[in-house]
Amino acid sequence: MIHLVFRRFHMSKKSRSKVKSRMISLIVFVLLACLAVYIYHGLQTPLTVTTYNYHNKKIPSAFSDYTIVQISDLHCKNFGKNQSELISKIKAAKPDMIALTGDIVDEDHDSISSVEDLLKGIKDLAPIYFVTGNHELTSLAATQYQELLALFQKYGVTDLDNDSVKLKKGGQSITLYGRQYFSQYLTDSLPIASDKDFDILLYHGSDNFKEIAPYHYDLILSGHAHGGIVRLPIWGGIFGNDGTFFPEYAGGEYTIGDATLISSRGLGDASIPRFNNPPELVVIKLNP
User: Fold this and answer.
1) Measured by CB atoms within 10 angstroms of the end CB, which terminus of the chain is less buried, N or C?
2) Which candidate, 97, 58, 51, places its Cα nearest to that of 288?
3) Domain span at 119
């Protein structure tokens, strides 16, 4: 009798252990399945549009609802046949001005036909202004950069490197500045913008925001960081272009004093696949 009770107790304990083992296996399986789904969705890269409603009392009333489309870090990437998807989203934004903020071409793509497809599709939508990124200025991309400049001549794009232009509407104006990409000594010859007028600066490197902020530009449009390439909840962007981690201005809207930076996460790819960081077309609406 005692032997029978012990055997039943022994079998019950063994059975509980088996159930516990199966439960642990099930939990591990569910967690791995959730992780797999998260990774799968994180690696999906549909083209997204991010809209910023920017207000500043210095913006003239004639520029109410003035719409800027920012294209950054394209790296010759295609979005649909002949860039149809990207062009469609740009058209839908009804831009008053289009800003190309660098790294439109690079040394890794011999053909820049994708860029020509884009320019051909948007040339009649609004004036287009360009500043260089680091990839246009590398000697390895010299041929691609010269071909890009030729396309600008063909499609009426204004190269605004180290230059400025008055944007006029309804008898009022704002000033658009462009700055060639510099990894160092950026501010040595950076003009100081007006305190009274509304001024926009196109400059590729978002990581230089702290250096630029004291120069009185109201709105700075940049890119370069690709959103930190891999983005995680809470932490944001992980990888900086300079080999550091957690870049401070990887993507989004940032403010220092009276200066606002809009940092595009860009459209093209990097050596590390984008994760939880889809390609981004930026739309900015100005209002007083």
Assistant:
1) N
2) 58
3) 47-287
pTM of the predicted model, to two decimals? Answer: 0.86
123 and 239 belong to one structural domain: yes
C-alpha torsion angle, residues 17, 18, 20, 26 (rounded to 10): 160
- What is the number of structural domains in the chain? 2
Cα separation, 271 vs 226, whole angstroms: 11
Tell the residue number behind the tokens 């700055």, with chain if given. 179
What is the per-residue pLDDT across 184-226, written as a single tens digit (0 to 9) for each? 788 888 999 998 999 999 999 999 999 999 999 999 999 999 9
**Same domain flag for 20 and 59:** no
Give the model confidence (pLDDT) of 242-251 as tens digits: 778 999 999 9
Q: Are residues 147 and 29 in the same domain?
A: no
Quick one: which of 181, 232, 231, 230 has its CA closest to 207?
181
CATH number at residue 110: 3.60.21.10
Alpha-carbon torsion, ordered 149, 153, 156, 161, to 10 deg: 40
Element (H, E) at 259: strand 259-263
131 plus 228 within the same structural domain = yes
Whether the Cβ atoms of residue 284 and residue 240 lie closer than 8 Å to each other: no
Task: Give me the sign of the Cα torsion angle 128, 69, 224, 48.
Answer: negative
